[in-house]
Amino acid sequence: MQCMAMIIGVKPEMIDTYKQLHAAVWPEILDLISRCNIRNYTIFLKEPENLLFGYWEYHGTDIDADMAKMAASEKNQEWWSFCIPCQQPLETRKPGEWWAMMEPVFHHD
Question: Is the pTM of this model over 0.70?
Fold first, then answer.
């Protein structure tokens, strides 16, 4: 299992929309997340900085293939068409990232 963390901004005027979207995530998206071997997925909001922090656990054996499957899903692309306009990526993210991935520096069970 791999613990994954990521961060992105959320546009202040879109916070309510983002919350509403995630209060009723489409069942097809929840199923896709599970089929891509992602568990314990949580998104936190920090205001007034308007940052979203995402945490999830990857339980598969080929993260690149699972992420490609997720990105290729037509339903997920439709979901992203609602979510992406709410988000403000960090200027410091790496090339190819939308959400900026974070490095783990401490863990305790």
Answer: yes
